[in-house]
Design a protein that fits this description.
about 300 residues, two-stranded antiparallel ribbon, Cytochrome Bc1 Complex, Chain D, domain 2, about 45% helix
Length: about 300
């Protein structure tokens, strides 16, 4: 069964679905989460010279970052790390220069925040956002959700000129990750294993996919009527093989289906992932893919070879 969307509505959904291919499939590590403005920010924001970043920062966060980290800044456990209570720690570890490079160039690699493992990709925003927008959104995140109380007394808001200097470095996401690791406290990393799912679960997922996903992603997972990004092959692997099942599950639950995100039950999301994994060459076993994020965190999406 397919959705009965109108073509006009389908065109509108393309923007949402494009996030999957853009690696917003990704957890976007301390990339920014859902929208929202902070009352504390409005009352005590600190302008950087003539740069009035407050409104621009809230608007940029709202329009580009809020889908993963939530309006509360708390993110989604196992999928997208929190910014509330954590952004100031990033500043202390790497300085505003690291945060500028994180947003500009993205990051790939496993991290731990508040005892929870995250293993995915933060997309780069350097091509989509200008220097003023990036500076403003960093300042917003550092001062929203009571993060401001954790900032050092000599904190100075990031300026657009700081972003321009960082932009010239043109780092890779892996290089940004290496810089983070240099300043981050190291905790124990959870052991990673291949995902588990059964053939029967994949069949249930196939039926759920046909009902909820087929129009956008197609019968072959890469030929959707409304231009949804490929969910198999090298394109899927490039965006997800650095992450774990929890990141994919959390992204799907936060974003899909685009007309009613989060409205499927957790078991159905897990079934659909089992089907997607089966189409990407992962082998079924005798244990179903769990619907609990905690269990999914230990299941890596890394695969050495995925056929197109």
């Amino acid at each position: 069964m397919r959705f009965g969307w109108s073509q006009a509505r389908g065109r509108g959904l393309k923007l949402v679905l494009a996030a999957l291919a853009g690696g917003a499939l990704a957890w976007s590590m301390v990339a920014f989460g859902l929208q929202g403005t902070s009352r504390a920010l409005a009352q005590s924001a600190m302008p950087a010279g003539n740069f009035q970043w407050q409104a621009l920062g809230a608007r940029t966060y709202d329009g580009n970052c809020s889908g993963c980290h939530q309006r509360s800044g708390r993110g989604i456990a196992g999928g997208f790390p929190p910014l509330a209570g954590h952004a100031a720690e990033l500043l202390a570890q790497g300085g505003s220069g690291f945060m500028a490079r994180l947003v500009l160039f993205g990051m790939t690699g496993a991290i731990e925040v508040e005892g929870t493992q995250y293993n995915g990709n933060m997309p780069s925003w350097g091509d989509a956002l200008n220097d003023n927008e990036i500076a403003a959104v960093i300042n917003y995140v550092l001062t929203a959700w009571d993060n401001e109380a954790q900032l050092p007394k000599d904190f100075k808001p990031v300026a657009a000129s700081d972003i321009a200097v960082a932009r010239a470095e043109n780092l890779t996401p892996e290089q940004v990750y290496a810089r983070r690791q240099q300043g981050a406290p190291h905790g124990s990393k959870a052991a990673q294993s291949a995902p588990s799912f059964t053939a029967e679960q994949a069949e249930r997922g196939h039926a759920a996919y046909a009902h909820n996903c087929l129009d956008c992603h197609g019968s072959n997972l890469d030929n959707g009527e409304f231009g949804g990004p490929p969910l198999k092959g090298l394109s899927f692997a490039r965006h997800w093989d650095a992450g774990n099942v929890a990141a994919l599950f959390s992204f799907m639950k936060a974003k899909m289906p685009p007309d009613r995100p989060g409205q499927l039950n957790d078991e159905t999301y897990a079934d659909v992932i089992a089907y997607i994994l089966s189409e990407n060459g992962f082998k079924p076993g005798d244990k179903e893919l769990p619907a609990e994020v905690g269990a999914q965190q230990a299941m890596s999406l890394k695969k050495q070879a995925i056929a197109e």
